[in-house]
Design brief:
Length: about 190
């Protein structure tokens, strides 16, 4: 397993050659050994210098690291790292908040999250300028169906986008790729 990973991922991560598939899981120690780094701290220090749009967020035993269109989810409790966890479900407020913090850093967006109830979360994004057409297109897009609602407002001369997420039995979980697509789309509004 290690050598297969080493031969496939080392050129992609270190030399920026090739494409990385999504949702690949492997032991953290194998990733560190492949990249010739001694620790997670060494990993983040090394790639912060190399990658553009570097961002990281951590809560308890989970750390997210992203840059150069790559995303790593480190689960220290299980000793597993997931490379590009696009299909991972966002199944708790803590996970939602962590990914929002990460994507805010990547896309240079000011956002806050709050849990209205245990299964109803609100992401508020501050927009640099109003883009009524872009917001309307976002609200009508296929992506909007992944969220409970997407609304905009103006408060104290600043434009805000409020995105609501409801998680309950019988409903599909919000996926990491859907949340990332939202942040990417919002980062292009008004430009």
């Amino acid at each position: 397993m290690f050598f297969k990973f080493h031969n496939y991922y080392r050129p992609i991560l270190c030399e920026r050659k090739g494409r990385v598939s999504a949702d690949r899981r492997l032991p953290i120690k194998d990733l560190l050994q492949t990249l010739s780094v001694s620790s997670i701290r060494h990993f983040t220090t090394k790639f912060k210098k190399v990658w553009s749009n570097f961002s990281q967020a951590q809560n308890n035993d989970v750390m997210l690291v992203a840059g150069d269109s790559l995303l790593f989810r480190f689960d220290f409790h299980r000793g597993i790292v997931t490379v590009n966890p696009s299909m991972d479900p966002i199944d708790s407020f803590d996970v939602f908040k962590l990914y929002c913090e990460l994507f805010s850093g990547i896309y240079n967006i000011t956002s806050t999250v709050k849990d209205a109830t245990s299964n109803w979360w609100v992401l508020s994004i501050t927009l640099e300028e109003e883009d009524a057409v872009g917001i309307r297109n976002l609200q009508k897009s296929k992506l909007a169906s992944a969220f409970e609602s997407i609304s905009s407002s103006e408060v104290d001369g600043k434009f805000h986008l409020d995105v609501e997420v409801v998680q309950s039995k019988g409903l599909d979980y919000l996926l990491v790729e859907q949340l990332q697509e939202l942040f990417e789309t919002v980062s292009k509004l008004g430009k």
